[in-house]
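Lay summary. Proteins are chains of building blocks that fold into shapes, and those shapes determine what they do. In this project we predict the shape from the chain. Here is one chain we studied, written as its sequence of building blocks.
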Amino acid sequence: MNRIKKGDEVVIITGRDKGKRGAVLRRVDDSHLLVEGINRVKKHQRPNPAKGETGGIVEKDMPIHISNVALFNPATQKADRVGIKVLEDGRKVRVFKSNGEQVEA
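And here is the predicted shape, written in a compact code that computers can read:
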């Protein structure tokens, strides 16, 4: 079970964007996430008339490693680690390590 999923609000804990918050747009692979507004770079793009794209400098979000983000805990208003807990009926749920509350998903 993935500890961080699409749609989760995360806090960047290391790097150039440390302290910023954003929502996970998608998982690129097992260890990389695309977070909105985070790790934004400027890319020089050529025009492509076949696709209707104009050329110039565009801003683009690049993937960030999953170890550099932590899930945002709304109860404590801080970044928090996530654990997995098995309920009595056999379902696996994500819980915050600090207070043991279940992650809403």
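What the prediction tells us: The first strand starts at residue 9 and ends at 12.
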